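Researcher: I'd like a candidate sequence for this fold, 465 residues long. If you have to choose between options at a position, lean toward the conservative one.
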């Protein structure tokens, strides 16, 4: 008995897929297509909105999404329209090779990943332009063994840099990255992995002097909101004082470009973590140097980064446990690690002093919808095969994240770079920012100061709970 397949997308990719199946897979039968546009000589069974009824009528064994340029929102919509069935939904790879050359084969069709229904197709970047900018430069990445830092490292190594230097305080992550680069047969002359914490001013200075980088990507930070509510002093030390240490060392050692990796949680901060990242933004933005240009890149949640909600959902689904969410009304921005790192690297090619670059994160997505899609993408039915349980918000968590503060929205303008916005420079009070950082430094040097620090932060940010 033949495997019955329906293809979503009757464009060139879908028809090439049908031809490949007919030619090479005699145990499979393409029943027809689902597409919102009627096409001559193509059997269209219905529109995307009608998909559930179509699947019921034709009793198919598999659905294949054959739209290589599909946004995550479309894939998510397809999943949400199929919450009441278990028909496997697979996809043609969303890769530039497939998009540019219509290289579509059934053999390459794969299972859905989180990036398929949350992310976007890869941005076509000007490799030549980026290679020209980074060629023969030494680049330092703090937190370079973490999720985002290590992806920045991987992409930099493709751009003919002279050397990428990683500074990270996690022995385990540094070891893992070392093994990965060895297995990838990356030349040892192209990278150096160094243990060190940005909190250690002496070590930070030592590394900066030894490496002499032209560009610094500062990705080292504590990012777990609920943990930093408990460990306030540690959040200050790493996210504020660590940023100060790296920025100051960059100035003293002739770094040309300093890029701080920030977060949407710095906007109207409701948490200690968000407040520390906002203060770090303020400190970096007001830095002035004849040699070093300082800028900030701000973005939201990164899919499958360490501690991301997505791996937790996947584990819960695979183990058939309840998928736990905090609140059905909660909304978040999501972006793939690959795209986030790519846009951070691209933003560094601009030299606007004190600029904040904000990555276009797409639409806000309901956490409840994310949980439903995580379950359905494993060919299971939400709240039937796997339950969704609401456990309540954790300390410091916002209901809805923001990319811009109200006063910043008037400053936003597009850049020539795809999916990157820029906030026009504004006054950030150099002396006042230095005073804030100095006050926090004095507080964390004394024991049991958490409550005093929180009171102090609340005087700065009325949004802090």
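Model: Candidate sequence:
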């Amino acid at each position: 008995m033949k495997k019955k397949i329906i293809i979503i997308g009757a464009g060139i990719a879908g028809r090439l897929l049908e031809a490949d199946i007919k030619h090479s897979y005699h145990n499979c039968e393409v029943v027809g297509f689902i597409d919102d546009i009627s096409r001559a000589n193509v059997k269209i069974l219905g529109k995307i909105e009608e998909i559930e009824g179509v699947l019921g009528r034709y009793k198919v064994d598999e659905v294949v999404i054959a739209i290589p340029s599909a946004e995550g929102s479309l894939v998510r919509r397809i999943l949400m329209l199929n919450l009441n069935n278990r028909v496997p939904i697979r996809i043609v790879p969303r890769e530039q090779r497939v998009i540019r050359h219509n290289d579509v084969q059934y053999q390459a069709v794969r299972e859905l990943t989180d990036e398929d229904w949350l992310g976007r197709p890869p941005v076509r970047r000007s490799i030549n332009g980026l290679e020209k900018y980074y060629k023969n430069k030494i680049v330092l990445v703090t937190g370079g063994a973490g999720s985002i830092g290590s992806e920045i490292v991987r992409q930099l190594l493709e751009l003919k840099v002279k050397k990428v230097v990683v500074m990270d305080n996690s022995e385990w992550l540094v070891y893992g990255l070392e093994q990965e680069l060895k297995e990838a047969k990356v030349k040892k002359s192209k990278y150096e992995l160094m243990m060190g914490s940005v909190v250690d001013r002496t070590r930070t200075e030592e590394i900066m002097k030894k490496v002499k980088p032209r560009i610094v990507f500062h990705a080292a930070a504590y990012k777990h909101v609920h943990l930093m509510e408990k460990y306030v002093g540690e959040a200050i030390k790493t996210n504020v004082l660590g940023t100060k240490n790296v920025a100051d060392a960059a100035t003293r050692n002739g770094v040309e470009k300093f890029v701080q990796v920030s977060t949407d949680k710095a906007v109207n901060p409701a948490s200690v973590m968000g407040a520390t990242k906002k203060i770090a933004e303020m400190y970096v933005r007001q830095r002035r140097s004849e040699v070093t240009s300082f800028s900030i890149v701000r973005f939201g949640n990164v899919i499958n980064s360490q501690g991301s909600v997505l791996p937790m959902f996947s584990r819960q689904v695979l183990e058939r446990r309840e998928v736990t969410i905090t609140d059905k009304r909660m909304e978040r921005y999501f972006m793939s690690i690959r795209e986030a790192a790519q846009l951070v690297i691209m933003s560094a090619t601009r030299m606007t002093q004190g600029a904040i670059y904000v990555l276009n994160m797409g639409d806000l997505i309901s956490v409840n919808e994310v949980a439903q899609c995580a379950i359905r993408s494993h060919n299971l039915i939400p709240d039937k095969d796997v339950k969704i349980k609401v456990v309540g918000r954790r300390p410091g968590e916002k209901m809805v994240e923001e990319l811009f503060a109200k006063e910043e929205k008037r400053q936003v303008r597009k850049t020539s770079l795809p999916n990157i916005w820029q906030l026009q420079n504004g006054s950030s009070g150099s002396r006042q920012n230095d005073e804030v950082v100095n006050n926090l430094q004095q507080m964390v040097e004394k024991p049991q100061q958490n409550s005093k620090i929180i009171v102090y932060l609340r005087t700065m940010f009325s949004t802090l709970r």
